[in-house]
Structures are given as C-alpha cells and as structure tokens.
TrEMBL record:
Membrane spanning stretches: none
Natural source organism: Arcticibacter tournemirensis
Highest rank taxon of the organism: Bacteria
Protein name, as recorded: ATP-binding cassette domain-containing protein
GO molecular function, one term: ATP binding
UniProt KW keywords: ATP-binding, Nucleotide-binding, Transport
PROSITE patterns referenced in this protein's UniProt entry, alphabetically: ABC_TRANSPORTER_2 (PS50893)
PANTHER family: ABC TRANSPORTER, ATP-BINDING PROTEIN (PTHR43335)
One Pfam family from the record: ABC_tran
Family listed: Belongs to the ABC transporter superfamily.
Keyword Transport: yes
Amino acid sequence: MSIEVHQLTKIYGQQKAIDNISFTAGPGEILGFLGPNGAGKSTTMKILSCFIPQSSGSASVSGFDTSREPMEVKKRLGYLPEHNPLYLDMYVKEALEFVAGVYGIRNKRSRIEEVIELTGLGEGRHKKIGALSKGYRQRVGLAQVILHDPEVLIMDEPTSGLDPNQLVEIRSLIKDLGKTKTIILSTHIMQEAEAICNKAVIINKGKIVADDSLTALYEKNPGKTFEEIFIGLTNTGLN
C-alpha cells in the first residue's frame, strides 16, 4: 500500500484531534477523505505530509515512516494544502523553475513544459502569480505538486475557486493521475467526491465512521444520495 495509517492519534492539550484511526490507500485509488469542519482531516493530512508529528500510532508513505524517514516521504509525496502557498511576486514559469531546482529534477525545461500543458497554464506562463485569478493560482499549486512526479498526492480542496470549465479540466487531470498514483482528496463538496473518487474514508469527531468504496456505500444505503449518506454518518441532520 502507498499509504498506511495505523492507530493514529493526535492530541492537542486535552483534545484528541484524531483518535486511533487506521486506513490504507494504494496505487490506482482516489480516496475521498471527508468529514465536517474540525473532524480531523487537516490534522491527518499534515501528519502524512510530515508537517506535524502524531501523538501515537504510525503512518507511512510508499513504505517510509513519516516520523523516522520524513525526507524519503517528501521525495515521494505531493501535498496541496487548502491555502495554496505561492510566491506571488514570481512569474509562473520562474516559480516552477525554482521548485524544480529544489527537487533536483533532471531535464527541468521539458518537465516544466509538460506540467504547464497538463495543468492548462499555457496562457499564464509569463504572468506574475499575483496577477492571476484564484482559479489560475490553484493551477499553479497543482503544477508545483506534480512537478517531481510523486507516487502519492494529497490534495485539500484542489478545485477551490475554479470556474465550471476549469473544474471539468482539473477533475479530468486528477482522475488521469489517479490511474497510476495514490491520491487522497479532501473536499466539502459531496458532488466533487462522487465525480472523482472511487473510495471514501469519512471521519467525524476524530474517529472514522466509514471506510469503503463508493459502490459499497450506495449498496449499504439504498435510495440515498452520497450527501445523505455523509450527513447520516456524521450526525448533522438527516438519517
């Protein structure tokens, strides 16, 4: 498995942000990591990306432990956080050249051109990032994430700010990437999860309440939409 989470717990003071959670994801899977605000999604993704340590339990990416081997994890991981960190004073191509240099990418120019094409950044390649629309800034973030061709991608609200046409293009890109890579995608839009993901882990109040394929979730909840299934599992309204 590309991602293995085993009895993972994170405590802040007296509060358990995540409580003894376990799940796996492998190549060819696009896993929707879903839950209400404050459920523990961002905490889990930050642990997997080696941004913060867990309190107990273990997590690994491509066989490398996030606590003991963070540099090996980062070589194989692309992480797009919800608030996309960008150098706004850089030009698009300049920023990608900088990121490529950080990763020591060979054939840097051809790889940058390939990623610009994949993410639809051709028209904006010579613009300053600060002058781009929110949707195009999101594309730059995606380009940075996939530039070093990582085995695992973690994306937090990756389609935020995209117009309907851009949304279709980026969904298609994520699905294409998911054919060979392992992807964890977090979103609050259930239609987005339905359109992109083939598996879902739903977390509520720090605990996993569902871990199954979307097909199996529908079979277990006949006649319900995915949004109704989510609401029922997270106890926020409909049953």
